[in-house]
Specification:
The protein is an alpha/beta fold. The chain has 12 helices and 13 strands.
Length: 416
């Protein structure tokens, strides 16, 4: 083998080490995706543009880059098919009339796209400063995007409850206080927070937003982690995180996490024609415009997603998510019996397990790539470690519990 290729061949994944990582929100992928990548990478297919815009059940005229018509159609198929999971009350045949979207470079790009559209949408309503409202657990990409877009000057943090969800009463108090000065608000709800997997009460937030008059809102939902779990294991009478909520304007989901697609596989979705607010004329592009952040982008992720839905489908994915959540519950029960471990509240609809413990990190962090953050819980600051439960972790629960117990013992030696 070429010695340069040999260096690449030596690269290992932390998902297959023994023991494997427990904190990364991903896992190894299907073998077929390697074959798909092998087939497509040499073809240099460009999925530039947003291919759902302007296309409805009545208008089927497509303008796209010549030579890439089939890849662009596959992206449309995937976007509209996955959108059905986020608009369960909409007849499936009408989805293309109400939703636009595109594959993007991950949840970060999708969040920035949502903020960008939100900024332009609100400016069209009222040329006033914009307040971006988040919680302490909102993903950092929102702060990044607000800074890039110049709307970070009035970012407001609202409190969370003891389940690490946005406190709607504090959200109301914050809006009530600020609306005497400001009239444009971007509210960001999270479905599957990065550290805890918690879910903000999207429907309650939606109802609160609807109750206001003479104030403009753009409601964006970051479902990067929970987007590929919650709608697959719930019914509309349990929880609604998507476009069933009338004020939700855009949603981002990250298929390179629980969606089992290769990086980068962010998916941005919004209500029909909202992307027109950020449309830029590009004469040399087949559609003569672009309304994405990325512009040129890979087709490999799209093809893998299209294949996954066609070959495995929603029932298989539902079973996969259900198993991951059940295993998470098993591990939570095991860890609850270890002295020094606090199993924190976790959503029944995501496969993340947040715990709090004090231990000697050298006995466990290098083995499992543990990550720590500090959060307020029941009135005091605590260390929080997130555990993401995927199939590559299932066989290591006993070892993890034993190693964690040992690390706690070493970090908290008994007094002489």
């Amino acid at each position: 083998m070429d010695p340069i290729l040999e260096q690449i061949a030596k690269i290992q994944t932390p998902y297959k080490t023994s023991p494997p990582c427990f904190c990364y929100p991903g896992t190894t992928l299907m073998q077929e995706f390697g074959e798909i990548s092998k087939m497509l990478t040499p073809l240099q297919i460009n999925n530039i543009g947003s291919h759902t815009n302007g296309i409805t059940s009545q208008n089927t005229e497509v303008l796209s880059e010549g030579g890439f018509e089939v890849p662009h159609q596959m992206e449309r198929d995937y976007i509209w098919e996955i959108s059905k999971m986020f608009y369960k009350t909409m007849p499936p045949e009408m989805i293309k009339d109400v939703i636009d979207g595109y594959f993007c470079g991950g949840g970060t790009e999708g969040n920035i796209e949502g903020l960008w559209i939100g900024r332009e949408y609100l400016k069209s309503k009222c040329n006033d400063d914009i307040v971006v409202i988040v919680t302490p657990l909102t993903h950092y990409s929102i702060a990044k995007g607000a800074h890039i877009l110049g709307i970070n000057q009035h970012m407001q943090f609202v409190k969370m409850n003891d389940k690490f969800e946005m406190d709607v009463s504090d959200l109301k108090a914050t809006i009530d206080k600020l609306m005497t000065t400001y009239h444009n608000f971007i509210v960001v709800g999270t479905v599957g927070t990065t550290m805890c997997g918690s879910i903000d009460p999207i429907s309650e937030i939606n109802g609160l937003i609807k109750s206001y008059q003479n104030v403009n809102f753009y409601f964006h939902v970051d479902a990067s982690f929970g987007g590929f779990t919650v709608p697959f294991v719930t019914t509309p009478d349990q929880i609604l995180i998507g476009f069933e909520n009338s004020e939700v304007k855009s949603i981002v989901i990250d298929a390179d996490k629980m969606g089992l697609l290769p990086y980068p596989s962010g998916i941005f979705m919004c209500r029909k024609d909202l992307q027109n607010h950020v449309m830029i004329d590009v004469p040399y592009v087949g559609s003569h415009m672009d309304m994405t952040i990325s512009g040129s982008r890979t087709f490999v992720s799209v093809a893998c997603g299209w294949y996954y839905l066609k070959h495995y489908g929603v029932p298989w994915h539902t079973q996969f998510v259900t198993e991951c959540i059940a295993k998470r519950n098993t591990l939570a029960e095991m860890l609850s019996h270890i002295k020094g471990v606090t199993v924190l509240p976790c959503s029944p609809y995501t496969n993340m397990l947040p715990i709090s413990a004090s231990f000697d990190s050298k006995y466990i962090n290098p083995l499992y790539n543990m990550r720590c953050d500090q959060l307020e819980y029941q009135g005091k600051m605590i260390n929080v470690y997130k555990l993401c439960i995927f199939p590559h972790t299932f066989d290591y629960f006993d070892q993890f519990a034993s190693d964690l117990s040992h690390a706690i013992e070493m970090g908290n030696p008994s007094s002489p």
